[in-house]
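To whoever is covering the structure queue this week,

Two jobs came back overnight. Logging them here so there's a record in the thread.

Job A:
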Amino acid sequence: MNFDLNFLSGIPIYIQLKEQIKYGIARGHLKPGTQLPTVRKLAIDLRINANTVSRVYSELENEGLLATRKGKGTFVLMHNILHQRKDIQFLKTEMEKLVKEARELGFTPDEISSLLSEWAKRVKDHKIKGGQS
């Protein structure tokens, strides 16, 4: 998986890298058991400080997404798929509630879709932080 860091975005590099790894795991680009590059190699490839990569790996390990095996490397954990499915189901449930409330307020399906698309684009473009406008 290639990582695309934007050094001018104002978003800290470690957050960009962490989110891209999480996205790769969630979307199946980084499958369970996949070995990630060493801290040193990834730092060199991305032209960033090794401490930044180490921090990202450590935080993702604390979140239960990665595991570091001394002398072997850092790997995507097998059990995180169930966690991701629960997260996706939770998100779907919350979105269903939101859409239902919007319909009760009189919004049409097209208006709701347009608003959600606009919000998703702003999140993707990093114009809003944490999904809040």
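Job B:
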Amino acid sequence: MAHHKSALKRIRRTKTRTAINRARVSRIRTHIKNVETAIASGDRDAAAAALRKAEPELMRGVRRGVMKQNTASRRVSKLSRRVKAISV
């Protein structure tokens, strides 16, 4: 257990930031899952709409520091390819 006032504050701040970051990652995963579900259903329009909602969430995760730029770009690219592969 920490004994200094500043260390105690850091513990409190870390707990708060961890909760916020976990919520952000969870939100990103939910959006990705929505795209995956739409792709599995075979509905190209729904999948494209879900992807349009998911992409800003992924990039917001990059700006907030919960994900790296290349990771987000790779995921968007991968989902985009899968959406385009759905037959019209």
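Note for Job B: The domain at 5-85 is CATH 1.20.58.110 (Methane Monooxygenase Hydroxylase; Chain G, domain 1).

Please reply-all if you pick these up so we don't duplicate work.
Q.
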